[in-house]
Amino acid sequence: MFSQDKHVHVPGRPGTISWLVSAAVSIVLFMTALPVQAALLDAMHRDPIAPIILGVTGVLFVAIIGRISARYLGQPPVVGELVMGILLGNLAVPLGLDLIIVLREGPAIFDAIEQMLAGSSVEAATLSAFGGSSAMRISDLLQGPNGTELLHVVDAVDVFSRYGIIFLLFLVGLESSVDEMRRVGADSARVAVAGVLLPFFLGLAAMRVLLPDLPMHSALFIAATLVATSVGITARVLDDLGKSAAQETRIIIGAAVIDDVLGLLMLAIVSGIVVSGGVDFTHMGLTVLIAVIFLAGAIFFGPYILRFIIGLFRKFDLIEAKMFVSYMFVMTLAWTANLAGLAAIIGAFTAGLILHDAYFIHWGAYKKHAYSIRDLIMPLEVILVPIFFVLMGIQVKLETFLHTESILMAGALLLVAVIGKLACGMAASKKVNRWTIGIGMMPRGEVGLIFAAIGHSLGVIDEMLFSAVVMMVIITTLATPMLLKLSARELK
């Protein structure tokens, strides 16, 4: 979910044009720093970690500018980070930014590396992975004087972004709990189920109509990205309006908890279909069974394992104990989920769902602890997650929208995304404002991006579809606060 910190209201803050100019200047500074650093490194003893430091910090710098710009424009930080990534990625080619040119190719670069390690030449590997003019450009860069450093930086950025996804889903899980899932009412359950099924089947139908030749597993993955709900921005808007105690707010939050679980379960099913190479109902049933066993096993045995591990840390400082236990627990479950054939983020979310501060009773009542688990993990999330969002923006190729088919696809995804979530609000009782509930479930945010990123990495979502999904995420995220403020005025 989005960070829960409030917007900072600064008197006399700069307008939109000022911040766009600032963003452009920041990108130029980032661009000019790269060749300067390269020249300095050539003039002295080259430290192999220096290019990684420069590259990762540069991407984070761009993310910070995007986040600041979004704050001053009253938008969620993720939107600013995505837009800055899109600007950077699409300025990279004309301005000759070698690192960004490689980064914008996404998972394909790792396919090329794998082929090179298997013995293929650089030219053959890049041609197989990219095709066309991109292959020639990437091949020249990789065979250039800084080719090795480029690969190191690309690998480091990818690793940091993957850690960011894990910590992000862990924090999403921390905001919920198994007890909270049991307490949500019938309205929340109905809204959640409708909010998963309606967008999925509408999206699947749209794919079959608009792209009849698209493989079924690709159509399923696109449909799965429409299922996601990121309720953080909704919660923030309703809180700002003083409506956090409204029945509609409780329904939305409760539905979002169930929605997360169902959405991740659907991701597991679709990923299993991709791995198996087709819609195999036996394999699909096995995937569902594994996912259910994993979730049930983690929820049942997790508390016992946690109590045992925490007992081993009794002699540690509270902060050390919370950090070590939290990190090891989330990484263990993420690895176990991957071992079971599920996405690592399913394990990360499950870890957050199980773990909470009340387990650390050896250090006194948890409500009196100076720092919560969330407080301690947030610094990692604040650094790593923006790298993921900028990277997703970099991989959006605006040239894909030069074709009518791309624009039509983006529009269709947006329409289905809005209709599917608005309609799920109708599953609530007539006593509440159904439109408000539907609008509150509409933003896809970071969860939709993670689904798209996984599909992109698996090779089932091409550049055009990936760019269309990112645009859908941005627009639904931007539209929600405005629509919600209009709809929620009469809530009690």
Defining traits:
492 residues; mainly alpha; Na+/H+ antiporter like fold; 2 domains; 21 helices; 74% helix
Quick summary:
This protein is mainly alpha-helical and 492 residues long. 74% of the residues lie in helices and 0% in strands.
Structure overview:
- This protein is mainly alpha-helical.
- The longest helix is centred in the middle third of the chain and has 32 residues.
- It is globular.
- The two termini are 25 Å apart.
- The N terminus is likely disordered.
Task: State the domain count.
Answer: 2
Termini separation: 25 Å
What is the alpha-carbon Rg in Å? 23 Å
Task: Give the averaged pLDDT, no decimals.
Answer: 79
SSE order, as H and E? HHHHHHHHHHHHHHHHHHHHH
- What's the quaternary structure here? single chain
Structural class: mainly alpha
**Which CATH top level class of the largest domain fits?**
Mainly Alpha
Helix amount:
over 70%
Instruction: State the major sheet.
Output: none
Tell me the CATH architecture of the largest domain. Up-down Bundle
CATH topology of the largest domain: the name is Na+/H+ antiporter like fold
Q: What is the count of helical runs?
A: 21
The low-pLDDT segments are 1-14
The fraction of residues assigned to DSSP E strands is under 5%
Total strands: the figure is: 0
Shape: globular
Helices and strands in order, then pairings?
Blueprint: H1 16-43, H2 50-72, H3 77-95, H4 98-103, H5 108-117, H6 122-129, H7 132-142, H8 147-174, H9 178-183, H10 186-210, H11 216-225, H12 232-240, H13 247-276, H14 281-312, H15 318-339, H16 344-354, H17 373-394, H18 404-424, H19 434-440, H20 445-457, H21 463-487
